[in-house]
C-alpha cells in the first residue's frame, strides 16, 4: 500500500450528522433540536459517540476487503493509522476493547481483524487493549437483514467474563466497519450493563447513506 493510495483515501466529513451516532444526513431534517437522530433520541443507541475515518466505498472498501477476506494482515498498520485520525484528542479513554469474533468464525477467517486494528490504535495512542468481551453464540451474517432483524440477530450475543473490569470506565470499542450499528450497539449494551461509564466507537469506515454508491449489502459485522 503506497503513500499515494493512503493520501487518496478521503475522510468522511458530512455537513449534517447525528451528534451521538454520527450518521451522516443530506440535511438537518432528521435531527431534533439537540442534534440527535430518531434512534438516538429514542434511547435505542447504547454507545455515547461514534467515530469513523471514511466512507465504506471505493478504494477504502477495496482495501478493507483485501485485509479482512484476503488475509492481508499487514494492512492493519496503515489502516490503524487512518483510524487514529478520526479519534478526537479530547475523548477520554481508559482502555481499548476490540470487537470479538465467535470461535467458529475465527477458525474460518484465521484472525480477528478488529483485534489487529485495536492493537495498532493502542500502540499509537499508548492506551491498553483489553479483551473484555466474548461472543456467546455464532450469529448469522447481518448482510441482507433489516434493521430490526439485525438487532434481534445480535441480541444477548455478548458477555463479559469479568464484568468488574468494565465498571466506571470509559471504553473505546474498535471494529472495522459500522453499518447499521446493531452489532456494536449490542456489545455496548453488554459493557454498559456491566457498569461502563462511557462507550465510544471507533471504526475505519461506515457507509455514507447520502451517496447512491453506498453498498446496501455490506458484509461487515
Secondary structure: number of strands: 8
Proportion of residues in extended strands: 15-25%
Low-confidence stretches: 212-221
How many helices does DSSP assign? 8
Can you summarize the main beta sheet?
4 strands, parallel
Q: What structural category do the secondary elements indicate?
A: alpha/beta
| Net shape | globular
Helical coverage, percent range? 25-40%
Spell the H/E element sequence.
Answer: HEEHEHHEHHEHEEHE
For the largest sheet, list the strands in their spatial order.
3-8-7-4
Determine Rg (CA atoms, Å).
16 Å
Average pLDDT level: 88
Measured between the Cα atoms of the first and last residue, the distance is 24 Å
Question: What structural keywords apply?
Answer:
two-stranded antiparallel ribbon, four-stranded parallel sheet, alpha/beta, 221 residues, single chain, disordered C terminus
Amino acid at each position: 500500500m503506497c503513500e499515494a493510495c493512503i493520501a487518496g483515501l478521503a475522510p468522511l466529513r458530512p455537513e449534517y450528522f447525528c451528534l451521538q451516532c454520527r450518521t451522516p444526513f443530506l440535511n438537518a431534517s432528521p435531527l431534533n433540536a439537540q442534534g440527535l437522530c430518531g434512534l438516538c433520541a429514542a434511547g435505542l443507541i447504547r454507545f455515547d459517540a461514534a467515530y469513523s475515518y471514511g466512507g465504506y466505498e471505493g478504494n477504502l472498501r477495496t482495501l478493507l476487503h483485501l485485509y479482512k477476506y484476503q488475509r492481508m494482515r499487514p494492512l492493519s498498520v496503515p489502516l490503524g493509522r487512518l483510524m487514529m485520525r478520526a479519534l478526537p484528542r479530547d475523548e477520554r479513554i481508559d482502555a481499548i476493547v476490540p470487537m470479538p469474533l465467535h470461535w467458529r468464525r475465527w477458525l474460518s477467517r484465521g484472525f480477528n481483524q478488529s483485534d489487529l486494528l485495536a492493537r495498532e490504535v493502542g500502540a499509537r495512542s499508548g492506551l491498553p487493549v483489553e479483551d473484555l468481551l466474548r461472543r456467546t453464540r455464532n450469529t448469522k451474517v447481518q448482510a441482507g437483514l433489516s434493521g430490526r432483524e439485525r438487532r434481534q440477530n445480535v441480541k444477548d450475543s455478548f458477555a463479559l467474563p469479568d464484568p468488574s473490569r468494565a465498571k466506571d470506565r470509559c471504553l473505546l470499542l474498535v471494529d472495522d466497519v459500522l453499518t447499521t450499528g446493531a452489532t456494536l450497539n449490542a456489545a455496548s449494551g453488554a459493557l454498559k450493563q456491566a457498569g461502563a461509564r462511557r462507550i465510544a466507537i471507533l471504526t475505519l469506515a461506515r457507509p455514507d447513506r447520502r451517496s447512491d454508491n453506498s453498498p446496501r449489502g455490506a458484509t461487515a459485522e
